[in-house]
Amino acid sequence: MEYVVAFLVLIGVLIWFHELGHFLFAKLFGVKVEVFSIGFGPVLLKKQYGETEYRLSVIPLGGFVKLYGEEDNLADPRAFSSKPNWQKILIAFAGSFFNFILAILVFWFLGVLGKEVPKYALEKPVVGYVQENSLAERLGIREGDLVLSVNGKEVKTWKDLEERMLREIFARTITVEVLRGGKVEVLRGELDVRNPKAFGAEPIIEPVIGGVLEGSPAHQVGIRKGDRILSINGVEVKTWQEAVKLIRSSEKINLRIERDGREKELTILPMRDPKTNLSVIGVIPHIETVRLKQGVYESLVASVEKIVLLSGLTLKAVWSMITGALSPTNLGGPIAIAQLAGQSAQQGIIPYLNLLAFISVQLAIFNLLPLPMLDGGLIVLFFIEMLRRKPLSVKFKEAWQKTGLALIIALSLFVILNDLIRLFSGKKF
Questions:
Q1: Which of 2, 19, 168, 305 does the annotation list as catalytic?
Q2: Cα-flanking dihedrals φ and ψ of residue 281, to 5°?
């Protein structure tokens, strides 16, 4: 139920803000708004205020603003059809514009509010662990390397490295400079956008328990927050990643820990993770965090930059799907969004707001795609009419709308099928 509520609130805010953009710009240009609806299908609630009927409908997967004269060519100055094409274009664009504004406002607020980040994120990117079968391993990165640059761009902290790798996610090749044994090494490799994975180079994380899941094997034998793992099955442990690797491959665990300056030995029978079939004991690492806050102006600039970055990555992803470089199975629909909304809501208001802003950008760009039935498709029509200096034929517009409806239905069914396959296969989105 929590997932449903989180999804409905998130999608409701996004739709309301999108339709508000259309509504306000229509009012700005003197167009009469007949209906403002959140949702489609049968009407649950409706109320007439002035000349506009406000609705809440059953299907919460979109909304619409019905403009007077939108479907008929009327000479009435309050009719949408009587307005010049540049005004029609702005009214159509306003929905996505407001979604961009919403995302900027949320990221701006979160930047000023500040967020907890791992302390290591602000430290030099000295590699403490390299994941198996990762990009970092393929590049030849080793433990102890100091990462200096990625594709010619300097990185000074783990935060810099993470952001740079995000920007380079659709690059064909990757070049990483590292400092190793006092010498600069240049490492090169290929990126496979069809099989995107984490970079795989991680900082040194101390093998200290940060939390114990209630009822887990670790909880049952008395492991506590703050315990330091010294060895597992006689193998000395220096990092958290080493501990995880040993635990996952063990049927029985002889654990030596340090607590309050004293050593203690425990025996644990781990449980199996049903998704990975690996051994787990129900602990998380202790990671020291710091609160990172930005000034009002600094946060605003950073928010705009983040929107530009997300927009660019989204457009590259769309193009990669069109060219076949990226599988369309990466698309997510309402079920995936509901899962993400529920998970982020459980983590707290900040992750939930971050998701809201992220999806707001995706919604804005999706609606601007030049497809019939979308705002982008309408903008294309208005541009064509502007160039022709006369309206397109009714027959062409009807065919355009029918084509768009078929495309949207097909796309909706495809993403829902993707969601169901992921849901029943246990894969993450």
A1: 19
A2: -120, -5
